[in-house]
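Researcher: Here's a chain I'd like modeled. Treat it as a single chain, no partners, no ligands.
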Amino acid sequence: MSAAPTLPRKIIAHNVVHMRAEPTNDSELVSQTLMGRLALVHEERERWSLVETDDTYRGWVENRWLADPPAGPLMTVNSTFADMRKLPRQDGPLVMRLPLGAAVHVMPPRSAKEEWVAVTILNGTHGWLPVSVFPMPPPRIAPERITGAAAERARDFLGTPYLWGGSSSFGLDCSGLVQLCYRLSGIILRRDADIQRDDPRFVPVPENDLLPGDLVFFGKPDRITHVGMHFENKTFIHSAGGAGVILTEWGDDRYTSHFVDARRLNLDRAQEPVTCP
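Model: Modeled as a single isolated chain. Structure tokens:
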């Protein structure tokens, strides 16, 4: 039996790129992907490509936002937003606003006192970013802290607008918030609330035993329509349509009556890669 062909690999070359259900800008926004992330190309057309991102999700993106993978390493923005400037100062002309998780080429600072570093984004544009937007060194989260760290990161997004298919700090839907917070804690989740509930790395947990970062699911047992994370003091954090990222108390009749169940990351399986059944 011959081996399956290797799919072409591209890299996302724009700050936030929409992934569509069909190859047209009028089609449903199903997800987003960020600058610097790899994408496997399943099908290429004149203006669009069907790509698969590292969370196993597939969608159509415009070819103008795809580039060949770079030879050198990239560094990831670790602040909610990062304003790339033409000059190394706060009043320099804005080149592009980058979301948390976007990755760029960074020139090493000339000294430890430097407050700005020269960067190149993946379309070849040059500019400057504050040193403070990059983690130095990148933080390492102990396995037993992953779920709590995910809940803590969610606090950074309170007030972020709701966006159907949103996966960045510019706008988030419910599963996009959960996915982003876990990614920042070192765990890549799949997209959409129903498939997050079926993740084999997570196990059921009783409602009266919830810990910060546990995933809480709403809807019906056979149709999950919403996901959030248990937070603290009988609250959960989630991205709600019409409200954005908010904290809600257990007992709120808009959600609690539709609670289905909860899942907790199994630490013994935490380092397993995300898989597509």
